[in-house]
Amino acid sequence: MAPGRAVRTRGGVPVILTRLARSGRGGWLLLVAGLVAAFALPWLIYPPVALDIACWALFAASVDLLLGFTGLLSFGHAAFWGGSAYCTGLIALHTGMPFPVAIAGGAVFTALLALPIGFLSVRLSGIYFAMVTLAFAQMIYFVANQWRDVTGGENGLQGIPRELFGLDLSDSFFFYYAGLPFVLAGLFAAWRIVRSPFGRVLVSIRANPDRARALGYPVDRYKLQAFVLSAALAGTAGGVFSVGHGFASLEGVYWTTSGQAVMMVILGGIGTLWGGAIGAALIVQLQDFLATAGFAETGIITGTIFIVVVLLFRRGIWGTARHLLITRRTPATPADVAAEPKKSVDTPV
Q1: For 120-140, how does the pLDDT look when each residue is reduced to its tens digit (9 = 90+)?
Q2: Residues 142, 275: contact at Cβ < 8 Å?
Q3: What distance in Å separates the CA atoms of residue 194 and residue 266, rounded to the nearest whole number?
Q4: Of 17, 40, 46, which is closest to residue 29 (Cα–Cα)?
Q5: Contact present, 57 and 70 (Cβ < 8 Å)
Q6: Are 186 and 236 in contact (CB under 8 A)?
Q7: In whole angstroms, what separates CA 92 from the centre of its chain?
Q8: Under 8 Å between Cβ of 19 and 26
Protein backbone atom coordinates (compact mmCIF):
# COMPACT_ATOMS: atom_id res chain seq x y z
CA MET A 1 0.00 0.00 0.00
CA ALA A 2 1.37 3.38 -0.97
CA PRO A 3 2.31 5.78 1.82
CA GLY A 4 -0.55 8.01 2.85
CA ARG A 5 -3.16 5.88 1.07
CA ALA A 6 -6.21 5.23 3.24
CA VAL A 7 -7.51 1.72 3.78
CA ARG A 8 -10.90 1.37 2.11
CA THR A 9 -13.61 0.53 4.59
CA ARG A 10 -17.28 -0.25 4.35
CA GLY A 11 -19.31 0.70 7.37
CA GLY A 12 -16.14 0.84 9.47
CA VAL A 13 -15.04 -2.68 8.40
CA PRO A 14 -11.97 -3.06 6.15
CA VAL A 15 -13.01 -4.25 2.68
CA ILE A 16 -10.45 -7.07 2.70
CA LEU A 17 -12.11 -8.53 5.80
CA THR A 18 -15.51 -8.14 4.18
CA ARG A 19 -14.38 -10.05 1.11
CA LEU A 20 -12.89 -12.81 3.24
CA ALA A 21 -16.13 -13.16 5.16
CA ARG A 22 -18.12 -13.34 1.93
CA SER A 23 -15.83 -15.86 0.27
CA GLY A 24 -16.00 -18.31 3.17
CA ARG A 25 -12.22 -18.40 3.51
CA GLY A 26 -12.26 -16.28 6.67
CA GLY A 27 -13.17 -19.27 8.82
CA TRP A 28 -10.21 -21.28 7.56
CA LEU A 29 -7.85 -18.37 8.13
CA LEU A 30 -9.14 -17.98 11.67
CA LEU A 31 -8.68 -21.72 12.24
CA VAL A 32 -5.07 -21.57 11.06
CA ALA A 33 -4.45 -18.47 13.17
CA GLY A 34 -5.93 -20.22 16.21
CA LEU A 35 -3.75 -23.30 15.74
CA VAL A 36 -0.63 -21.18 15.29
CA ALA A 37 -1.48 -19.26 18.45
CA ALA A 38 -2.09 -22.49 20.38
CA PHE A 39 1.25 -24.01 19.39
CA ALA A 40 3.17 -20.75 19.90
CA LEU A 41 1.62 -19.89 23.28
CA PRO A 42 4.24 -21.50 25.60
CA TRP A 43 6.98 -19.71 23.67
CA LEU A 44 5.35 -16.36 24.38
CA ILE A 45 4.20 -16.70 27.99
CA TYR A 46 4.99 -18.83 31.03
CA PRO A 47 4.10 -22.47 30.05
CA PRO A 48 1.87 -23.21 33.11
CA VAL A 49 -0.13 -20.07 32.32
CA ALA A 50 -0.38 -21.19 28.69
CA LEU A 51 -1.75 -24.54 29.88
CA ASP A 52 -4.27 -22.73 32.08
CA ILE A 53 -5.49 -20.73 29.09
CA ALA A 54 -5.89 -23.87 26.99
CA CYS A 55 -7.80 -25.75 29.71
CA TRP A 56 -10.06 -22.82 30.56
CA ALA A 57 -10.75 -22.27 26.86
CA LEU A 58 -12.11 -25.81 26.58
CA PHE A 59 -14.03 -25.41 29.83
CA ALA A 60 -15.59 -22.17 28.55
CA ALA A 61 -16.50 -23.88 25.26
CA SER A 62 -18.29 -26.64 27.21
CA VAL A 63 -20.29 -24.02 29.12
CA ASP A 64 -21.10 -22.17 25.89
CA LEU A 65 -22.33 -25.40 24.32
CA LEU A 66 -24.99 -25.48 27.01
CA LEU A 67 -25.60 -21.73 27.42
CA GLY A 68 -25.17 -20.35 23.93
CA PHE A 69 -26.61 -23.21 21.88
CA THR A 70 -29.12 -24.86 24.23
CA GLY A 71 -30.16 -21.88 26.32
CA LEU A 72 -29.31 -23.44 29.68
CA LEU A 73 -27.24 -21.46 32.19
CA SER A 74 -25.37 -23.88 34.46
CA PHE A 75 -23.68 -22.81 37.66
CA GLY A 76 -22.81 -26.43 38.43
CA HIS A 77 -20.10 -27.16 35.89
CA ALA A 78 -17.47 -26.89 38.60
CA ALA A 79 -18.68 -30.34 39.67
CA PHE A 80 -17.51 -31.76 36.34
CA TRP A 81 -14.27 -29.77 36.10
CA GLY A 82 -13.28 -30.54 39.68
CA GLY A 83 -14.80 -34.02 39.75
CA SER A 84 -12.75 -35.04 36.74
CA ALA A 85 -9.65 -33.49 38.34
CA TYR A 86 -10.09 -35.73 41.39
CA CYS A 87 -10.95 -38.83 39.34
CA THR A 88 -8.02 -38.29 36.97
CA GLY A 89 -5.67 -37.79 39.92
CA LEU A 90 -6.89 -40.94 41.69
CA ILE A 91 -6.44 -43.05 38.56
CA ALA A 92 -2.96 -41.67 37.93
CA LEU A 93 -1.89 -42.03 41.57
CA HIS A 94 -3.26 -45.49 42.37
CA THR A 95 -3.06 -47.38 39.08
CA GLY A 96 0.10 -46.01 37.46
CA MET A 97 -1.71 -45.74 34.13
CA PRO A 98 -0.45 -43.22 31.55
CA PHE A 99 -2.00 -39.81 32.02
CA PRO A 100 -4.05 -39.96 28.77
CA VAL A 101 -5.90 -42.98 30.20
CA ALA A 102 -6.43 -41.11 33.47
CA ILE A 103 -7.83 -38.08 31.63
CA ALA A 104 -10.15 -40.28 29.59
CA GLY A 105 -11.30 -41.97 32.79
CA GLY A 106 -12.04 -38.57 34.33
CA ALA A 107 -14.09 -37.53 31.29
CA VAL A 108 -16.11 -40.77 31.41
CA PHE A 109 -16.68 -40.29 35.13
CA THR A 110 -18.06 -36.79 34.63
CA ALA A 111 -20.33 -37.95 31.81
CA LEU A 112 -21.77 -40.63 34.12
CA LEU A 113 -22.07 -38.09 36.93
CA ALA A 114 -23.93 -35.72 34.61
CA LEU A 115 -26.58 -38.31 33.75
CA PRO A 116 -28.54 -38.21 37.04
CA ILE A 117 -27.85 -34.51 37.57
CA GLY A 118 -29.03 -33.65 34.09
CA PHE A 119 -32.01 -35.99 34.27
CA LEU A 120 -33.29 -34.09 37.31
CA SER A 121 -32.32 -30.64 36.02
CA VAL A 122 -33.26 -30.37 32.34
CA ARG A 123 -36.97 -30.34 33.09
CA LEU A 124 -36.41 -26.86 34.48
CA SER A 125 -35.28 -23.71 32.71
CA GLY A 126 -33.98 -20.25 33.43
CA ILE A 127 -32.97 -19.38 36.96
CA TYR A 128 -34.48 -22.61 38.30
CA PHE A 129 -32.13 -24.72 36.18
CA ALA A 130 -29.17 -22.58 37.26
CA MET A 131 -30.02 -22.93 40.95
CA VAL A 132 -30.55 -26.70 40.78
CA THR A 133 -27.21 -27.26 39.04
CA LEU A 134 -25.58 -25.00 41.65
CA ALA A 135 -27.12 -27.09 44.42
CA PHE A 136 -25.76 -30.32 42.91
CA ALA A 137 -22.31 -28.76 42.54
CA GLN A 138 -22.32 -27.76 46.20
CA MET A 139 -23.22 -31.34 47.09
CA ILE A 140 -20.15 -32.55 45.17
CA TYR A 141 -18.07 -29.93 46.98
CA PHE A 142 -19.35 -31.20 50.35
CA VAL A 143 -18.52 -34.82 49.44
CA ALA A 144 -15.01 -33.85 48.27
CA ASN A 145 -14.43 -31.93 51.48
CA GLN A 146 -15.69 -34.64 53.84
CA TRP A 147 -14.34 -37.76 52.08
CA ARG A 148 -10.81 -37.01 53.24
CA ASP A 149 -9.51 -40.58 52.94
CA VAL A 150 -10.06 -40.42 49.18
CA THR A 151 -9.89 -36.76 48.19
CA GLY A 152 -7.47 -35.46 50.82
CA GLY A 153 -10.05 -32.98 52.11
CA GLU A 154 -8.69 -29.45 52.35
CA ASN A 155 -5.23 -30.64 51.32
CA GLY A 156 -6.51 -32.12 48.08
CA LEU A 157 -4.65 -34.62 45.93
CA GLN A 158 -0.99 -33.80 45.46
CA GLY A 159 1.80 -35.22 43.37
CA ILE A 160 -0.35 -36.40 40.46
CA PRO A 161 2.12 -38.01 38.04
CA ARG A 162 2.55 -37.29 34.32
CA GLU A 163 3.41 -40.86 33.38
CA LEU A 164 3.56 -41.55 29.63
CA PHE A 165 5.56 -44.67 28.78
CA GLY A 166 8.71 -43.42 30.45
CA LEU A 167 8.82 -40.02 28.75
CA ASP A 168 10.10 -37.15 30.86
CA LEU A 169 7.26 -34.63 31.00
CA SER A 170 8.30 -32.96 34.24
CA ASP A 171 8.99 -29.74 32.35
CA SER A 172 5.76 -27.75 31.95
CA PHE A 173 6.86 -26.65 28.49
CA PHE A 174 6.89 -30.22 27.17
CA PHE A 175 3.73 -31.25 29.02
CA TYR A 176 1.86 -28.39 27.37
CA TYR A 177 2.30 -30.07 24.00
CA ALA A 178 1.41 -33.46 25.51
CA GLY A 179 -1.87 -32.10 26.91
CA LEU A 180 -2.73 -29.80 24.00
CA PRO A 181 -4.14 -32.61 21.77
CA PHE A 182 -6.85 -33.27 24.38
CA VAL A 183 -7.85 -29.61 24.36
CA LEU A 184 -7.87 -29.40 20.56
CA ALA A 185 -9.84 -32.64 20.30
CA GLY A 186 -12.38 -31.28 22.77
CA LEU A 187 -12.74 -28.01 20.87
CA PHE A 188 -13.11 -29.90 17.60
CA ALA A 189 -15.80 -32.10 19.17
CA ALA A 190 -17.68 -29.00 20.36
CA TRP A 191 -17.42 -27.50 16.87
CA ARG A 192 -18.74 -30.69 15.25
CA ILE A 193 -21.61 -30.85 17.74
CA VAL A 194 -22.86 -27.34 17.01
CA ARG A 195 -22.43 -27.81 13.25
CA SER A 196 -24.30 -31.13 13.15
CA PRO A 197 -28.07 -31.68 12.78
CA PHE A 198 -28.07 -32.38 16.51
CA GLY A 199 -26.65 -28.90 17.10
CA ARG A 200 -29.31 -27.35 14.86
CA VAL A 201 -31.99 -28.97 16.98
CA LEU A 202 -30.35 -27.57 20.11
CA VAL A 203 -30.49 -24.07 18.62
CA SER A 204 -34.17 -24.52 17.77
CA ILE A 205 -34.83 -25.67 21.34
CA ARG A 206 -33.05 -22.57 22.64
CA ALA A 207 -35.15 -20.34 20.38
CA ASN A 208 -38.54 -21.96 20.99
CA PRO A 209 -38.75 -25.24 22.95
CA ASP A 210 -42.53 -25.46 22.54
CA ARG A 211 -42.28 -25.29 18.76
CA ALA A 212 -39.47 -27.87 18.75
CA ARG A 213 -41.65 -30.14 20.87
CA ALA A 214 -44.57 -29.62 18.50
CA LEU A 215 -42.35 -30.69 15.60
CA GLY A 216 -41.79 -34.01 17.35
CA TYR A 217 -38.39 -33.50 18.96
CA PRO A 218 -38.00 -34.93 22.49
CA VAL A 219 -36.79 -31.68 24.01
CA ASP A 220 -35.81 -33.04 27.42
CA ARG A 221 -33.80 -35.85 25.83
CA TYR A 222 -31.89 -33.43 23.62
CA LYS A 223 -31.19 -31.19 26.61
CA LEU A 224 -29.93 -34.17 28.61
CA GLN A 225 -27.62 -35.26 25.78
CA ALA A 226 -26.25 -31.72 25.47
CA PHE A 227 -25.76 -31.60 29.24
CA VAL A 228 -23.80 -34.88 29.27
CA LEU A 229 -21.65 -33.88 26.28
CA SER A 230 -20.92 -30.51 27.89
CA ALA A 231 -19.96 -32.25 31.14
CA ALA A 232 -17.61 -34.62 29.30
CA LEU A 233 -15.82 -31.69 27.65
CA ALA A 234 -15.56 -29.89 30.99
CA GLY A 235 -14.20 -33.09 32.52
CA THR A 236 -11.56 -33.39 29.82
CA ALA A 237 -10.40 -29.84 30.56
CA GLY A 238 -10.34 -30.50 34.31
CA GLY A 239 -8.34 -33.69 33.86
CA VAL A 240 -5.66 -31.98 31.76
CA PHE A 241 -5.53 -29.15 34.30
CA SER A 242 -5.03 -31.50 37.28
CA VAL A 243 -2.28 -33.52 35.60
CA GLY A 244 -0.58 -30.38 34.32
CA HIS A 245 -0.40 -28.85 37.78
CA GLY A 246 0.02 -32.08 39.69
CA PHE A 247 -2.85 -31.53 42.12
CA ALA A 248 -6.63 -31.45 42.52
CA SER A 249 -8.15 -29.17 45.15
CA LEU A 250 -11.49 -28.10 46.56
CA GLU A 251 -11.27 -24.87 44.61
CA GLY A 252 -11.96 -26.86 41.45
CA VAL A 253 -15.40 -27.98 42.67
CA TYR A 254 -16.38 -24.67 44.28
CA TRP A 255 -19.16 -22.66 42.63
CA THR A 256 -16.87 -19.72 41.82
CA THR A 257 -15.15 -21.94 39.26
CA SER A 258 -18.45 -22.23 37.38
CA GLY A 259 -18.97 -18.49 37.68
CA GLN A 260 -15.55 -17.76 36.21
CA ALA A 261 -16.25 -19.98 33.20
CA VAL A 262 -19.59 -18.24 32.62
CA MET A 263 -17.83 -14.88 32.82
CA MET A 264 -15.32 -15.99 30.19
CA VAL A 265 -18.14 -17.00 27.86
CA ILE A 266 -19.93 -13.68 28.30
CA LEU A 267 -16.69 -11.72 27.75
CA GLY A 268 -15.91 -13.58 24.54
CA GLY A 269 -19.49 -13.79 23.29
CA ILE A 270 -22.34 -16.16 24.08
CA GLY A 271 -23.08 -18.60 21.28
CA THR A 272 -19.79 -18.03 19.46
CA LEU A 273 -18.00 -21.11 20.87
CA TRP A 274 -14.57 -19.60 20.16
CA GLY A 275 -15.27 -16.45 22.16
CA GLY A 276 -14.69 -18.39 25.37
CA ALA A 277 -11.04 -18.86 24.37
CA ILE A 278 -10.62 -15.09 24.13
CA GLY A 279 -12.32 -14.63 27.49
CA ALA A 280 -10.12 -17.35 29.00
CA ALA A 281 -6.93 -15.75 27.68
CA LEU A 282 -7.97 -12.34 28.99
CA ILE A 283 -8.98 -13.51 32.49
CA VAL A 284 -6.09 -15.96 33.05
CA GLN A 285 -3.46 -13.52 31.82
CA LEU A 286 -4.91 -10.71 33.90
CA GLN A 287 -5.05 -12.85 37.05
CA ASP A 288 -1.47 -13.98 36.52
CA PHE A 289 -0.29 -10.41 35.98
CA LEU A 290 -2.08 -9.12 39.08
CA ALA A 291 -0.87 -12.03 41.22
CA THR A 292 2.71 -11.49 40.05
CA ALA A 293 2.41 -7.80 40.87
CA GLY A 294 1.28 -8.70 44.39
CA PHE A 295 -2.29 -7.43 44.00
CA ALA A 296 -4.51 -9.64 46.15
CA GLU A 297 -8.00 -8.42 45.20
CA THR A 298 -7.97 -9.61 41.59
CA GLY A 299 -11.75 -9.91 41.59
CA ILE A 300 -12.12 -6.12 41.70
CA ILE A 301 -10.17 -5.67 38.47
CA THR A 302 -11.68 -8.62 36.61
CA GLY A 303 -15.17 -7.58 37.71
CA THR A 304 -14.61 -4.03 36.48
CA ILE A 305 -13.39 -5.26 33.10
CA PHE A 306 -16.38 -7.60 32.90
CA ILE A 307 -18.79 -4.70 33.49
CA VAL A 308 -17.04 -2.49 30.93
CA VAL A 309 -17.07 -5.19 28.25
CA VAL A 310 -20.72 -6.01 28.87
CA LEU A 311 -21.65 -2.32 28.57
CA LEU A 312 -19.54 -1.57 25.49
CA PHE A 313 -19.68 -4.93 23.68
CA ARG A 314 -23.11 -6.40 24.33
CA ARG A 315 -22.31 -9.42 22.17
CA GLY A 316 -18.92 -9.93 23.81
CA ILE A 317 -15.52 -9.31 22.25
CA TRP A 318 -15.57 -11.99 19.58
CA GLY A 319 -19.34 -11.78 19.17
CA THR A 320 -19.09 -8.08 18.33
CA ALA A 321 -16.25 -8.67 15.85
CA ARG A 322 -18.18 -11.48 14.16
CA HIS A 323 -21.27 -9.29 13.98
CA LEU A 324 -19.32 -6.55 12.20
CA LEU A 325 -17.76 -8.99 9.72
CA ILE A 326 -20.68 -11.27 8.97
CA THR A 327 -24.09 -9.89 9.87
CA ARG A 328 -23.75 -6.18 9.17
CA ARG A 329 -25.35 -5.06 5.93
CA THR A 330 -23.45 -2.26 4.21
CA PRO A 331 -23.55 -0.70 0.74
CA ALA A 332 -20.98 -2.04 -1.70
CA THR A 333 -18.66 0.21 -3.71
CA PRO A 334 -18.65 0.13 -7.55
CA ALA A 335 -15.33 -1.76 -7.43
CA ASP A 336 -16.87 -4.45 -5.25
CA VAL A 337 -19.91 -4.75 -7.53
CA ALA A 338 -17.64 -5.17 -10.55
CA ALA A 339 -15.58 -7.81 -8.76
CA GLU A 340 -18.67 -9.65 -7.52
CA PRO A 341 -21.33 -9.16 -10.22
CA LYS A 342 -23.57 -11.93 -8.89
CA LYS A 343 -23.88 -10.43 -5.42
CA SER A 344 -26.40 -7.83 -4.42
CA VAL A 345 -25.39 -4.47 -3.05
CA ASP A 346 -27.11 -5.43 0.20
CA THR A 347 -25.38 -8.80 0.61
CA PRO A 348 -24.65 -9.43 4.29
CA VAL A 349 -21.03 -8.98 5.31
Answers
A1: 999 888 899 999 999 999 999
A2: no
A3: 18
A4: 17
A5: no
A6: yes
A7: 25
A8: no
Structural contact between residues 349 and 22, judged by C-beta atoms closer than 8 angstroms: yes
Q: How many CB atoms lie within 10 A of CB 8?
A: 12
Closest CA to 177 of 43, 81, 33: 43
- pLDDT at 346 (0 to 100): 38
pLDDT tens-place string over residues 307-316: 777 777 777 7
For residue 85, what pLDDT is reported?
95
Q: 251 — alpha (psi -120 to 50), left (phi > 0) or beta? A: alpha
pLDDT in tens, 308-345: 777 777 777 877 777 776 655 444 444 444 444 443 33
Predicted confidence at residue 31, as pLDDT, reads 78
What pLDDT is stored for residue 326 in this prediction? 65
Question: How many whole angstroms separate alpha carbon 134 and alpha carbon 13?
Answer: 41
pTM comes to 0.84
Q: For residues 87 and 109, is the Cβ–Cβ distance under 8 A?
A: yes
- The DSSP result for 299-345, as a single string, is HHHHHHHHHHHHHH-TT-HHHHHHIIIII-B-PPPHHHHHH-TTS-T
Helix (H, G, I), strand (E, B) or coil at 346: coil
pLDDT-derived band at 26, boundaries 50, 70, 90: low
Which of 113, 119, 66, 61 has the alpha carbon at shortest distance from 85?
A: 113
DSSP-based three-state secondary structure for 13:
strand
Phi–psi pair at 162, nearest 5 degrees:
-115, 45
Radius of gyration, CA atoms only, the chain = 22
